[in-house]
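Supplementary notes for students who missed Thursday's class. We covered one full example, reproduced here. Read the sequence, then the structure, then the short commentary at the end.
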Amino acid sequence: MFGTTTFVSRSLLPILILLTLYFLGMDILLYSRIQNYDIRPTSNGTRYVSIIPCDFNPLCTVTVKGLMLDHPNYFLLSPLVAIMDNLLHISDSWTWITPNAISCFHVLIAVMAGKCISSDSLSHRRLGVILFQARTWLDDLDGHVARKRANIDGERSDVGSSGYIVDGVCDALSCVVLIICLYQYLAHNSNRRGGYDKLSQLPVSSVLESGNITSKTSNTALRNILLMSVHLFLTSAAWNRYISLYQDLLETEYRTPSISREHLYARQTTIFRGLSFWIIVLCWKFINFHAVIDYLLLAIFLDRIREYMRLIRWPSYVVILLLVYITEFHFLQAYAYVQGVPSFIDEEITSSDVFSQG
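Structure (token representation):
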């Protein structure tokens, strides 16, 4: 078993390296696109022109949600969904398939994945990881179909709509299924691998001792699962909150009477291009809800789930609370700047201008 795990880990390493290089390259291209081309319409801006159809190119339409979405979703799964839709014309021709139906269907896939993840067999758990990633692809598909039928460009959250609520509930159910099944696996498998088939050959005292170890394992698993569940809830709530807030601030026509539309667009573009905003959204790319689920699935696939949970048990709370504090501060300053009130963002822009001139 150990040899098989090592072989899979080594085989997976080149794929992870290639994906990392791809995501890094796309991040650089996205940053360049934001700095050099129109985001909001401006009188002196340059419109972005893509040689790849914008349905497949995540660089064409810059949105807050796209910037805060994790790398696999934004740069890999979303383009694959768009290609699939272009080939099969799901959005246009398959009108009997609704986004809500897709959302409900991927909960069933999550149940199948969870059943595999609760298995004692590492091969079954790996199959469960693959199935759960297929569920994530379907989650991307329901959003893509909904946006295409509503003629919405780019990644955006239609906060408050029935589709938004159904999608959120289905995502939550899928996550609950994953967590419950993961607990079942951890509770029924102690840190000592194997040996259960020999319990009947051991003295009674040894069997009782093994029962105590199993009970302690179950309690430890429950504690770790609860800590991880609370962290996932906080991460999801904070991530969705800031997507909604920044989306309303940077992608809408809302303005005070003293600010012209062109002035509003220019200030919104300035926020998008600011280094502080870019750092914040990049951090959310790495530690948003979907990214944390990806890390968890990778740990399950590599059979390192216990090591992973011990590693992130407390540091994960420190990281998310610190990021929430920084993001909240930045949003308040960005809101003041867009409304024409002096803030630290003015100083950031001035410092950037001085640096570029120097």
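Commentary. The first helix runs from residue 2 to 36. The radius of gyration is 24 Å. If anything here is unclear, bring it to office hours.
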